[in-house]
Amino acid sequence: MYDKQSPFSVNRLPGPRDSLSDSAHATLRAAIIDCQIAPGQAVSEAELSARFAFGLAAVRAAVMRLTASGWIAPDGRRGSVILPVSAAHLADLSVSRQCLEPALIHHAPPSDLGAELRLRAAVHHAATLQGPGRQAPLHQERDLMGLIALAVAAPRIRAWLIDTWELCLRADRHLEQSFGMSRDALPLPALAVAVADGDAPEATALLERMRHDFDLRASRALARSAVPLSPAPAPAPRRGAAPSTDHRSGTTPGPRSTKGDPA
């Protein structure tokens, strides 16, 4: 059945009934997707607490959840590092979509979910025609993607699909910021209607088109990038080690990173 209380039902903003840790998790996740927290950036719980106005306990719980899902990696005494956007990461997203998206068309959704999909598709399409700002489409895309994913009966596959789609949105946002590679609006209203109608051929064609366009943008970015798509964090200096000085510039450069996947 379509459960509107499901955590995967809507990618909504934090509300008054959410716990502080849930609100912190939703806020940090949204900031990561929109690249307000950049891929590859090192962050500490204290910095996140001050920036997003949550207590340390709520931020710590949110970071633990994001770490468990692979969006953040621990980085020793410096705190954590946001998952970089690398060639390997983009390839993993593409393969994951090929594996997960067919689950959308195995079964027709319940009638109430189908009706909600058609309604949201119409609203999304109308809002797109009005030409809203950059942030509004991203929020709407996340919201509609979360609803479409409810057509997947298996909760774990549904959660993996939402994670993969949202990481693709983040990759697109990063490519836009780094290379000026904007994209057209995703055909999500048409996909929502196809899923609601149980139209497997149409849904399959739309999903393949979305994957092809994503792969094409990734390939273009990789062809233009001689360095990792997002900077990998430099390792923390060893205790007691004196920083080296670049005598040509008079500056003290940071240590070279060994992380990241060159594009």
TrEMBL record:
User: Which residues are in coiled coils?
Assistant: none
Record-linked InterPro entries: Tscrpt_reg_HTH_GntR (IPR000524), WH-like_DNA-bd_sf (IPR036388), WH_DNA-bd_sf (IPR036390)
Task: Say yes or no: keyword Transcription regulation present.
Answer: yes
- Boundaries of each HTH gntR-type domain copy? 24-82
In residue numbers, the region (Disordered) covers 225-263
**GO molecular function (one):** DNA binding
Q: Which UniProt keywords apply?
A: DNA-binding, Transcription, Transcription regulation
**What name does UniProt use for this protein?**
GntR family transcriptional regulator
